[in-house]
Amino acid sequence: MAKSKAQQASSCTSRCKCNYDVFLSFRGEDTRKKFTDHLYTALIQAGIHTFRDDDELKKGENIEIGTKKAIQESRLSIIVFSNGYASSRWCLDELVMIMERSRTVEHTVVPVFDDVDPTEVSQQNGRFGEAFAAHEQFFIQEMKYRVEGWRAALREVADIGGFVLQDR
Questions:
Q1: pLDDT greater than 90 at residue 167
Q2: For a Cys staple, 74 with which of 2, 23, 103, 163, CB 3.0–4.6 Å?
Q3: Buried/exposed code over 58-73 (b: 16+ C-beta within 10 A; e: otherwise)
């Protein structure tokens, strides 16, 4: 007998230890003191338990392990794409972890394109293309699995659709 969406979500919740409602992914130097800070504040004020790395990780804690654990313990992820997002190896690794989780359990992904066109994300052109040209030079030995994994995750998340914010 097939499970309904509600039964799947319920069984995911019982299988997964969800300590957070939302995992907030963003490039700090681009959006921390702008959109992301306002979004985080609004989520917290609404009573939504949100993971943001600078608030939730303890000094001395392994960032990669702490972040991976937080992704696994979150019901959904909001990814804020900004102009410099693709230049951050860390952001791209985090994105791959989020997309892997979304394929294995009931984990919703909500992309937000902050002054970035979604096609720039999916096609990795413009600023995203420039960042990947640099990554391909630096990660020449890891091209096959790392850079291609980043590209695939960006295409996958851009296909989800999301919210497009543009400065006027």
A1: no
A2: 23
A3: eeeeeeeeebbbbbbe
